[in-house]
Amino acid sequence: MPPFDLPEGDPFGPHNLPYGVYSRTGSGERTVGVRLGDHVLDASAAARAIGSPHAPLLSRPTLNPLLAAGRTTWSEVRRTLMEAVTDPAHRAALEPLLHPLAEVTLHLPFEVADYVDFYSSEHHARNAGAIFRPGGGDALLPNWKHLPIGYHGRAGTVVVSGTDVVRPSGQRKAPADPVPVFGPSVRLDIEAEVGFVVGVPSRQGSPVALADFREHVFGLCLLNDWSARDIQSWEYVPLGPFLAKSFATSVSAWITPLEALEEARVAPPERTDPLLPYLDDTASEPAGYDLRISVALNGHVVSEPPFSTMYWTAAQQLAHLTVNGASLRTGDLYGSGTVSGPADHQRGSLLELTWNGRDPLELPDGKRTFLEDGDIVTLSAWAPGPDGLRVGLGEVSGRIVTG
Amino acid sequence: MPPFDLPEGDPFGPHNLPYGVYSRTGSGERTVGVRLGDHVLDASAAARAIGSPHAPLLSRPTLNPLLAAGRTTWSEVRRTLMEAVTDPAHRAALEPLLHPLAEVTLHLPFEVADYVDFYSSEHHARNAGAIFRPGGGDALLPNWKHLPIGYHGRAGTVVVSGTDVVRPSGQRKAPADPVPVFGPSVRLDIEAEVGFVVGVPSRQGSPVALADFREHVFGLCLLNDWSARDIQSWEYVPLGPFLAKSFATSVSAWITPLEALEEARVAPPERTDPLLPYLDDTASEPAGYDLRISVALNGHVVSEPPFSTMYWTAAQQLAHLTVNGASLRTGDLYGSGTVSGPADHQRGSLLELTWNGRDPLELPDGKRTFLEDGDIVTLSAWAPGPDGLRVGLGEVSGRIVTG
C-alpha cells in the first residue's frame, strides 16, 4: 500500500522522488521539494522532521547546493527522503509538509551555468539530412558517427515548464527572395529532448572520463529546444544556429535523479563505426536510458520518441564535452538533441513529423505544419522502475504567444 | 601635472580609470579597484574616503553589482573616482589606498553570464573564406552583409589574463585520413578580439534597440578567443564550432567603461548593402570605436589590427542578439569576432597571418605557423582620449602549456 493514500502504481511514488523548487501560493519563499503523486513535500522540513543532517542543503531557493554536494550526499539525501515517506512512523509529522501541486508555484529548479545542446539521434540526423540535402548522398555527415556533434546554447533563456514562449522575430530568406525579410518566425518548431544536469564541477584542463559520468551528473529532465527553422536556415552558415534557438528553451520543473532510473538503463544501439578510446563504451555498463517520451500538441499526442534509440549516450556526450579540457560547473545543462525513433510516429520535431511542412498533421483543431499562436506543446515521459512500477518524468509544457 | 606622480601622458591616468577586481598578495579578499598608472586604487575605500554613497557597490568580490546598477550610477561612480584622484585635497587620504600592481593578484573581474562570439570583421571573414573555400566564388557568404553572424561560446571557461592555457586535445581528420585521429591540437591559434560587457539586463521577449546600446553595455575589454583549427575543421559542420573554442577564452583584467572612450567613437565603414531597420545605423551617432590593437607573440609584435575597420558595431551586435527576444543578464559577454584590418600586418589570427600555415612568421626565436608550447600571446591596445591623451586598455596575455 503506497503511503499518503497515493494510488497504487503512481509514477511519482516513493521510488521516484524528483526534486524541484517551489513556493506556496501567496508566499514568495522558494525552497526545495520532492514530488509525491500530485503533491510536493517540503524536503528540508521533512529532513529536519526525521533528524537528517542534510536539511540545510535543501532549505535553499535552488537545487545548486544539493547538485554540488556530490554522489555520496545525493544518495544519503535520497535515502533519507525515501525513509521519510515510507515509514508510517513519520506520517503524522510529514502530512502537514505536503502541499497540493495546485497550490504551489514551481520555479526553474537550478541556476543554469552553461547550456550545451547535442544532436545525437541517428534517426533525427538522417531525417534532417534528407530534408535539407535531398539527393545529396549519405544523409549523415562524415563526422557524425565519430563524435557527438554539439554546440553551446543560451543559458539565460532556459525557462521552467509553464512559461509562455514569445514567438521570435528575425531574418529569413527563401532561396527565391532577393534579400532577407524580417518578421515573426513562420516556421516555429519544437525539439523533444532530454536534459542532463551537472552537479559536481571539474577542473579546467582535466577531461572527465566516460566512467565518471555518474560522479558528475545528478539527474535529468525533459527539455524542449524551441527552434525557428526559417531563422535557422538563413543564419546558420558557417557558425551554427544562434537566434533560431536562443529565444527560449523549456525544461521540466522536476529533476529526476539518475538513482531513480537504475532499472531504466539499457545498452545503446550497436556502434557501427569504431570509436576513439575516450568515447568507446563497448565494454562499459549500459549507459542508455529507456525513457518513453510523448509529445502532445494541444492535448493530442503527435509523437512517441523512444530515448533508448539515441546513438550517443549522455556519458559519451559528457566525455566529449570535456575532452578538450573544458571544465564543468554546477548547474551545467546539456540536451540530448532531438529524440527521434525509426518510425514515423516517433519523430521529435515538427520538421520531421510534417517533412518540412509537406505533410501537415491532421489535428482535431485543424492542420498543422509548424506552431501557431496559442498552441500548447507538452512533453511527458516515463521509464521502467523497480517492481514493475513506472518512474514518471515531470512534464515540460509551453504555449506560443505573440510578441 | 598628473596626480600621484604619474608620468605625463600615462595611458592609465585619471581620464581612464578601468575597473578590475584584485586581492592583495597574502590576503584572499577580493575587492573592486581602478587602475592608476601601474597601481590599483581600492575603489570602495576611496569612495568612502571622499564621502561617496557608492562605496558599498564597490566593496564586492566582483563587478557584477556595479554592472547591474545602470548608466546613471556608472556615471556617478566614475565622477566620484575621477574627483578622488584629481583633487589634491584627497591625496593624503588616498595614497595609502594605492597598491603597486606587482603586489596584487588580478582576478576575473565579473561573473560571466552568457558568452557570445561574433564574426564581424569583413577582412577576417574574407580571409577565412578565401582560405577555406579557395576558388569558391565570393569569399563572403550570402548572409554576411545582412546580419552579424554569431554563436554562443562557453562562459565557464572564460579566464583572466595571465592564466595558462592548456593545449586542448581532440579529434582531427585531414581530408586524406581514412578516420579521425585523437591528440593535442597541432593548429592552435589566437583570435584578437574586443569583448563587450553587459550591465543592465533585459526582459525575455523584448528586443533591445540599437539606440539603447549604452543603457545596457557597461564597457569593454580585450579578448583572445583561443581556437584549435584542426579540431574546428572536423567538428563544425553543421552546428558550428564547439570544442575548438570551448577550452579557454582569455579576457583582460580591466574593464574600460564606455564613458572613458567618448573621444574614440568613430563611424563604422560604409554600409555597402541596405540594412533591415533594426540594424540600420546610417542615421545613428558613430558606434564604432577607434581601438589600436597590438598582438605580440613572445614579446614580438606580429600584428596591429585596427578595431575601427569592423563592419558590424557592438550596438548592432546587441540589437541582433536580442531581436528574437533573447534576454540579457548582468555579466553577459560578447566578443567582436577576430579583428583584422585590410593590410597583411593587421590580421588578428595566425590562420590569416600565416595563410593557414603556408607562410610561416619569422620570429627571433624561430618560425611559427601555429602556437608552440611555452608561447606567450599578449594583446594590448589604446584609443584616442581627451586632450590628446591615450586611453590604455588592459592587456590580455596567456601562455600555452601542455596538458
UniProtKB/TrEMBL annotation, chains A, B:
The keyword NADP does not apply. NCBIfam families: fum_ac_acetase. Residues 15-109 form the Fumarylacetoacetase N-terminal domain. Its cofactor is Mg(2+); Ca(2+). Residues 116-399 form the Fumarylacetoacetase-like C-terminal domain. It comes from Streptomyces vulcanius. SUPFAM superfamilies: FAH, Fumarylacetoacetate hydrolase, FAH, N-terminal domain. GO terms for molecular function: fumarylacetoacetase activity. The keyword Hydrolase applies. The lineage of its organism: Bacteria, Bacillati, Actinomycetota, Actinomycetes, Kitasatosporales. Keywords: Calcium, Hydrolase, Magnesium, Metal-binding, Phenylalanine catabolism, Tyrosine catabolism. Its EC number is 3.7.1.2. This is fumarylacetoacetase. Pathway: Amino-acid degradation; L-phenylalanine degradation; acetoacetate and fumarate from L-phenylalanine: step 6/6. It is an enzyme of class 3 (hydrolase). Pfam families: FAA_hydrolase, FAA_hydrolase_N.
